[in-house]
Amino acid sequence: MKAVHIRIDWLIGIILLVFICDPAMSRADDIYENEGVQKVCSEKGVVVSASRYATKAGIRILERGGNAVDAAVTVGFVLSVTYPTAGNIGGGGFMLIRTAEGKNSFVDFREKAPMAADRDMYLDSNGEIIKDLSRVGHRASGVPGTVAGLYLAHKIHGSLPWKELVDPAVILAQEGFTIDMEMAKSFYGLRKLRENFPGLKKFARDDGKPLRPGYRLFQPDLASTLRRIANNGPNGFYTGKTAELISEEMKRGGGLITKEDLNRYQALIRNPIEGDYRGYHIISAPPPSSGGTTLIEIMNMLEGYPLGSNEFMSVNVVQTVIECERRAYLDRSTYLGDPDFVDIPLSRLTSKKYAEKLRSGITTKASSSKKMYKNRVRSEKEETTHYSIIDSEGNSVSTTTTLNGSYGSKVVVKGAGFLLNNEMDDFSVKPGVPNMYGLLGGSANAIEPGKRMLSSMAPTIVTHDDKVYLILGTPGGATIITSVVQIILDIIDFGLSPVEAVSTPRYHHQCLPDIVYHEFDAFTQRLKSELEEKGYNLKERSFIGDVQLIMVKGSFACGVSDPRMEGLASAVKEISIKQ
Ligand code: GLY
Prior knowledge:
The chain is an alpha+beta fold. The protein is about 35% helix and about 15% strand. The protein is built from 18 helices and 20 strands. The protein has helices at about 1-20, 50-65, 70-80, 145-155, 160-175, 180-190, 220-230, 235-240, 240-255, 260-265, 290-300, 315-335, 345-350, 350-360, 370, 480-490, 500-505, 525-535; strands at about 40, 45-50, 90-100, 105-110, 175-180, 215, 270, 275, 280-285, 385-390, 395-405, 460-465, 465-470, 505-510, 515-520, 540, 550-555, 555-560, 570, 575-579. An eight-stranded antiparallel β-sheet has the order 8-9-12-13-17-18-1-20. A seven-stranded antiparallel β-sheet has the order 7-4-3-11-10-2-19, with helices on one face. The protein has a three-stranded mixed β-sheet with strand order 14-15-16. Helix 11 runs antiparallel to helix 12. It starts with a helix and ends with a strand.
């Protein structure tokens, strides 16, 4: 028996060695130093999320025999407890599911405008935007979708009982969890807001002093809400006591969400957006997210260039990527919105023929976004979160959820203990007029009662030969799409390993403002000069994104959590590799 064990261990070792040493996957060893970034591999299932508590809870569900969707439900609810900046039950998101049999489906649980919302609700009598009304406070919230979305995913694909999946979140809310340095810093940053938003006191000590790293955060009201959801499913949120508490909160703060809005909310199953790139198949988020459409449009344009035969991060590559991004973001702002309200020329936008036409306008110099642009959308906030999961059967889940801004609208529902989103700001608050960022809104994304606001979230799965190859996504508002593009290019065109692809510095262009944003070390001095010579405006900015990636090779899946944040990749019967 012992000999057999040794042989199995050797076999696993050899397979992993091949995985790690694949020349196509380690070409960039000299490109980026990534010491300390952990890749975990397993045949039995992998979870990668922005919170170590959520990842571990998801792994426990897989270990108990749950499938990837079961684990995703648990991860989603735990994030609402342990990752309050973006994890939520008061917001929304999208879940892309690919079953082991190769069936794709997409759960849309994006928030909706309340029925009392109207196109000009954030404008004063002169038609000017009232500062911050769509971003903070009660009127900034759309009708939350997360609970309905997770329930719908479970109803179709789940295998373990619903209550078992919500219970880990109930326990963490009730019994508390230890906060780390990043979270303590984040809570410290809320102290000035507590006067206007007293619900935020739940993130401080009873005497009002900030919580220090190592303290436990107890959330008894949130535990009660989660218990109602565990016991009653979506009725525990959209009806009864929770709905009553939300409606009272809205009345107190002049918000628009009513009990009827909550009762009427429904998550939807949609067809994902799909496209091909150099023999790989990309599956991603359809409208009301712009994520998948814009991603496919960019990849279609890029396919026309032999990127991989250029040096990694050479001026040719970066310029080509920027120009393709510019054109796709222009279309994003012009055409995209909630498909239940606007007609979107999706098949044209995602066709190879259209990409060819767009490519014909690209030269070796910078195009002018101003000249190209007709309509534009508002920029989005970046406090979103992503998790990627695969189980031992190969069922795969890619989920991105959001409150929009950090801590959403900053409103905690009194007695219910959760934050509400400020997702109304993702609508074009004033179509056709520049907002405070110099961006214009498209009328396709104007506010209408019951409409879903446009998103950039791009939970994505890439397959090869009909088998899952990559499961990925990231937060980052408008930068979500370009981060996903970069990861796919880095892996497919430049042969970077998952750790390298996730760690490599990022850059971003979104047409307007006509600026190429880059992390401080993304471009060499030489590349900066070359791009500037071609007419690009460059701007250094802080870190971009927080990618949670799984790569599958053979029977092994390997997960990597972005080193930019505090997330965790973990696996059932984990084999951990430090590169
Ligand atoms: N709130 C960010 C997004 O939906 O893209």
